[in-house]
Amino acid sequence: MAQNYYQKEIETMPVEEIKKLQSEKLKKQVKHVYENVAYYRDLMDKKGVKPEDINGIEDLHKLPFLSKADLREAYPYGLLAKPLKDCVRIHSTSGTTGKRVVAFYTQNDVDLWEDCCARAIVAAGGTNEDVCQVAYGYGLFTGGAGLHGGSHKVGCLTLPMSSGFTERQIQFMNDLSATILCCTPSYAAYIAESLKEMGYTPDQIPLKAGIFGAEPWTEEMRRGIEKDLGIKAYDIYGLTETSGPGVAFECCEQTGMHVNEDHFLAEIIDPDTGEVLPEGEKGELVFTALDKEAFPLLRYRTRDICVLSRKKCSCGRTLIKMAKPMGRTDDMLIIRGVNVFPSQIETVLLNDGYQPNYQIIVDRVGNNDTFDINVEMNPEQFTDTVSGITALEKALANSMKVMLGINPAVHLVPPKSITRSEGKAVRVIDKRKLH
Ligand code: DLL
What we know:
four-stranded mixed sheet, nine-stranded mixed sheet, binds 5'-O-[hydroxy(phenylacetyl)phosphoryl]adenosine
């Protein structure tokens, strides 16, 4: 397939030039952060590093890391590097315990982010002739807004569907001849399944490409979606902390995602020691935002396990590639595209007067994630009637929904019926095979 580029000069820039560009941007960014973010300045001071010590990407390793724990501590404004009057947007995602991650954007941040998403759409074959159906969630989640902005930049006719209402998705897809579908891979598989049930064959579906990400998905799942929808399915990666989707995107080769290296400097580290690992080794992915103004995280630990590679790509892009994430170093689950931490569930249980004796069971039935939480009743509840227990389950499920953004099936079980562990409690049973 002939490759088009959205920003050819950058996407095919010789590696040495990209590195030079990164070095220049890094020096400026460290100065910006040091001068404007007291929280990070303290971390640098503690480590004995000054902006003058950073003369290029070879000095990156001298800088301290940031993690979700820092975001929680600095919540909500502690990592903001611009006055609020210069910010035009926030997005947010689940954090550990009760506090969400809140990311801020200036207009320039939004522009560069949308460029990253536009690169992904063009790499998937998108042009201004396309009709792009955005079925990622809109709102605080970054998926909808990011791909929506990218679609505008490419000049596609944009269908801002958000997620859900599958019948309506299918009606618009057909009536308006959508050619590109953007959503989570599990939602794409669900749409494909619904189309099949309605009697559509792949050649009757107008789509030609899909841009799917926000959760782990396997090559088998890719092949299934491609076959059922009659499309080519492209992976896209990102996280709220680095702006959202578009940190990395797949090209026609479908062998990993090109990192938008002019904006995001990627490293792989040993998650235990923090030591930087050479290219090709598996470890934790760390990003430094080189251009972000409002929320410029330096050396942010994603907790995603990954590998980077500079192998030549047949698409002509020189941007380094990351493999599909291979797991996480923390206990974050992604259920129906939503990030869930066991600690959030614990917080709800304690708030609602339960003991933190619980078990989360996640499975995939067809293409849907099931999400069950078994919770031990308190002894006094155990004497309740069946209808009383059902009401308690409903109330607890509701509190969970408020905290997590998705609805689990809550089952109250007798006191002391969840096996006590002698070592680490097994809180999560994930029966899906995603890696
Ligand atoms: O999921 C941003 C996004 C939206 C990416 C739409 C792609 C498409 P968060 O909700 O902050 O942001 O979740 C970020 O999701 O650290 C990974 O663990 C996981 N993740 C994101 N993309 C992929 C992917 C969005 N393509 C967290 N494959 C990340 C596997 C992914 N995991």
